């Protein structure tokens, strides 16, 4: 019902979802695009409502919702720290809880404007001992210290990077998008294994599937543009497995590009 209402009215989610799908997937027919727009909004609605389970049910019960796991064998190599790239696909909230259950995991986040809301969100996202740190200079120092001690970090890489941060214009679905160079900068300082991961939902069986795939650290250590293109292409490859569960409601591109 929520998805139907959002789809049928003009709002930020429906407008941005439609703009991104039309921009990134022009090869789809108009009818196919509309089906995907609605299904994407449907999945976004699911992500909102499932927080009631993820944030309030016992951790053991929540983690048991992951019925299928496709995990690269090297993920359990404890000799190195891990950088986990987590695009906004499926349930990144559940992925955060699962990673924290596997060992000390740092996640960068943008604090809420309201201190009471910020405290509330932190209390839910850290209840499995996940470590959330602000995406600022102090937070990055803590992150690097944690990685030097062989911890893991989860980075959501597919939003427009903040001003005055390392970034470059790289291709995403054949369109230029400002792309963060944070992962490259971390990889230059810490010899970590790098993965891309997602937890997707199955609405028929009411459970989830976890995928953790190894990426090439050497590809991130190339020239800035090549590194950013490799990151975006890796995200694309993941999205293509399930277009509908990607959060198309985020603005990745410049306003001028949407007008074309």
What does this structure look like?
By secondary structure, the chain is an alpha/beta fold. It has one domain. The chain has 12 helices and 9 strands. The protein has helices at residues 2-8, 12-24, 30-49, 51-56, 59-63, 92-102, 115-125, 137-148, 182-189, 217-220, 224-239, 255-259, and strands at residues 66-71, 82-85, 105-109, 131-134, 152-155, 167-172, 175-180, 193-202, 207-215. Strands 1-9-8-2-5-3-4 form a 7-stranded mixed sheet, sandwiched between helices. Strand 6 and strand 7 (175-180) form a beta hairpin. Helix 1 packs across helix 3 and helix 2 packs across helix 3. The longest helix has 20 residues, at 30-49.
Order of helices and strands: HHHHHEEHEHEHEEEHEEHHH
- Sheet-strand content, in percent, reads 15-25%
* Number of separate structural domains: 1
What sort of overall outline do the alpha carbons produce when their principal axes are compared?
Answer: globular
Oligomer: single chain
Q: What's the pLDDT, averaged over the residues?
A: 93
Number of continuous helical runs: 12
Q: How many runs of DSSP E, i.e. beta strands?
A: 9
- Unreliable stretches (pLDDT < 50, length at least 5) are none
Helical content stands at 40-55%
Spatially, the strands of the biggest sheet line up as 1-9-8-2-5-3-4
Overall structural class, as computed from helix and strand content, comes to alpha/beta
């Amino acid at each position: 019902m929520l998805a139907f209402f959002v789809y049928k009215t003009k709002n930020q989610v429906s407008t941005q979802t439609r703009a991104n799908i039309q921009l990134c997937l022009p090869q789809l027919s108009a009818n196919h695009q509309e089906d995907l727009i609605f299904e994407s909004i449907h999945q976004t609605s699911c992500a909102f409502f499932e927080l009631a389970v993820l944030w309030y049910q016992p951790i053991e019960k929540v983690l048991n919702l992951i019925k299928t796991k496709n995990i690269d064998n090297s993920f359990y190599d404890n000799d190195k720290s891990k950088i986990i790239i987590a695009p906004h696909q499926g349930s990144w909230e559940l992925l955060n809880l699962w990673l924290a259950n596997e060992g000390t995991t740092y996640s960068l986040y943008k604090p809420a404007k309201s201190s009471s809301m910020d405290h509330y969100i932190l209390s839910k996202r850290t209840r499995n001992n996940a470590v959330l740190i602000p995406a600022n200079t102090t937070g990055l120092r803590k992150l690097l210290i944690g990685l030097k001690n062989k911890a893991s970090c989860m980075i959501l890489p597919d939003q427009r990077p903040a001003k005055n941060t390392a970034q470059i214009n790289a291709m995403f679905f054949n369109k230029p998008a400002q792309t963060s160079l944070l992962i490259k900068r971390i990889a230059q300082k810490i010899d970590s294994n790098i993965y891309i991961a997602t937890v997707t939902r199955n609405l028929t069986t009411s459970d989830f599937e976890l995928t953790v795939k190894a990426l090439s650290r050497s590809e991130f250590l190339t020239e800035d543009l090549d590194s950013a293109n490799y990151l975006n292409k890796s995200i694309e490859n993941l999205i293509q497995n399930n277009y509908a569960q990607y959060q198309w409601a985020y603005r990745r591109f410049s306003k001028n590009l949407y007008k074309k």
